[in-house]
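Sequence only, no structure available. Ideas?
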Amino acid sequence: MFKPEIYAREILNDIRSGMDDVALMHKYKVTVKGLDSVFRKLLAAGLISEQEFDARKMGYLETVDLSGLFTIPEGGSGLIPPKKKTEYSYSGMVEGIDILDYIQWILLDRRQTILEISLPNRTSCKVYLKEGQILHATNGELEGEEALYSSVMFPGGKFVHLAWAEPDQQTIERPGTQLLLEAARRRDEADS
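Reply:
I predicted one. C-alpha cells follow.
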C-alpha cells in the first residue's frame, strides 16, 4: 500500500500559508483520515498548537455565500443545453477498502444512494447519502451520527447500494467531512 512521504516543514508552510484541507489532501495525496492523522502527528510533536489544531476542525463548520458568483439568465434563455453524458455502471466486489474512504468517495462524487453496511455482529446500517451530504443513518435502535459511528468501528464488513428513497427524517446536519474526521478520531481512540 502506497504511503506518501510528507515532510513536516513543507506541510507546516502550506498550512500556515492558508492552504485549505482539500488542497492539502490533493497535494499530499491523502484522504480525510490521512490528513487528520497528519494533523494529530504534528500536534503530538509540538509543531502545531492545540489552538491551530482546533482552528482546522472549525473550518468545516463555516458556510460560504455563493450568491453573485454566477449569472443565471431569467427564464432559462441563453443557457447552453447540457451535453448528454454517457452513463457507465459497473458492479462487483471490492475487498480491502476502508469504509470511511469509500464513503468519502461517494460524498466527493455527489452520488445519491443508500449504502447498506452489513457488520460481523449481524446488524446492518443504512446510510443515506445525497449530493455530497450524509442525511440520515440507522443501525438497529440508533439513528443519526451515533448510528454512523457505530457502523464504521468494525475492522470489516460488507456493503451494497440500495435503490434511492428519501429518508423519513434527516437526522444528520453536520458536513460529511467533519463526520468522517470524527469517525477516524473515535477509531484512533478505540485502537489506543
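The mean pLDDT is 83.
Hope that gets you unstuck.
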